[in-house]
Amino acid sequence: MTEAVAAASGEFTIGGDLTVRRLGYGTMQLTGDGVWGDPRDPDEAVRVLRRAVELGVNFIDTADAYGPFTADLLLKKALHPYADDLVIATKAGFARTGPGGWEPIGRPAYLRQQVELSLRHLGLERIDLLQLHRIDPEVPLADQIGELATLQQEGKIRHIGLSQVSIAQIEEAAGTAPIVSVQNLYNLSQRDDEDLVEYAEKNGLGFIPWFPLATGELAKAGGPLAKIAESHHASPSQLALAWLLKRSPVMLPIPGTSSVAHVEDNIDAAKVELTQEEFDQLTAAVG
Ligand SMILES: NC(=O)c1ccc[n+]([C@@H]2O[C@H](COP(=O)([O-])OP(=O)(O)OC[C@H]3O[C@@H](n4cnc5c(N)ncnc54)[C@H](OP(=O)(O)O)[C@@H]3O)[C@@H](O)[C@H]2O)c1
């Protein structure tokens, strides 16, 4: 039975036609150590994905690189055939050189191969949102975005997004094809990209903060939010996510977890509404 808890986080429309609930889920914790290979408990990974959707999540962030392909195959196993309103955002362009190893490769033939493989592994005919995982400094950006635009014209990609970029890079990429979202490191304790959040809001781009829980630092017992959380009758993780949701209407947090208990805790953050005073208190207390 669906309990649409995530609906309380509100909605955002990506690229003018893809409406999602703002509080989503990210699949990077569903692999082995170093984001490599199978997770310790693949059955729990399947349960996590199904529980997220049961709780109303309809925006899931993944990448070819997670495993590689482990997370995508788990997604397909857990949720295919997908609900009509489920939006899977994936990425390409960050090759894996081993556990913990990552290397940007933006050559058009490689990007095409990874998009084709993602379609197959995810069991999709079209990818709703394809994010260039990293810009490859060795390849002209117009060639990288140009290949994604060609895949878009072929009907294999619906929208194009970017990951870990500057405003100048967004503007340069937008000279080749429309850019609808940006995914950068951002959370309550890591706010270097405030200007990018403002830019995304002003230009109607979705802002997908990666490491929304600072890789768990903000969620843990004894962490910087633990004391404040007690007085709010919320968990630390819920406060970190509620802060992000209040920060901007274009904010789409995608907390990652390998456990059903944590996915339930995180999605309940949709119901935590901070007053402006509480938001300011958290902003001042952490950072
Ligand atoms: N674009 C990029 O370059 C990029 C880079 C990194 C990540 N991402 C995306 O961003 C998503 C989120 O990042 P992330 O998963 O690495 O980091 P995160 O969401 O900031 O934190 C995940 C960590 O927090 C723990 N955690 C989650 N919920 C918790 C809870 N309620 N209580 C206590 N601990 C909790 C998890 O452990 P448990 O598994 O034990 O719950 C895990 O160790 C990824 O899944 C991925 O989709 C993108």
From TrEMBL:
What's the superkingdom here?
Bacteria
**Is Oxidoreductase one of the keywords UniProt gives this record?**
yes
Q: Which UniProt keywords apply?
A: Oxidoreductase
The GO terms describing molecular function are:
oxidoreductase activity
Q: Signal peptide location in the record?
A: none
Locate the NADP-dependent oxidoreductase domain: which residues? 22-285
CDD domains for the chain? AKR_AKR13B1 (cd19088)
InterPro entries (UniProt xref): AKR (IPR020471), Aldo-Keto_reductase (IPR050791), NAD(P)_OxRdtase_dom_sf (IPR036812), NADP_OxRdtase_dom (IPR023210)
Q: Which GO cellular component terms, listed alphabetically, does the Swiss-Prot or TrEMBL entry include?
A: cytoplasm
This chain belongs to the protein called Aryl-alcohol dehydrogenase-like predicted oxidoreductase
Species name for this entry?
Kribbella voronezhensis
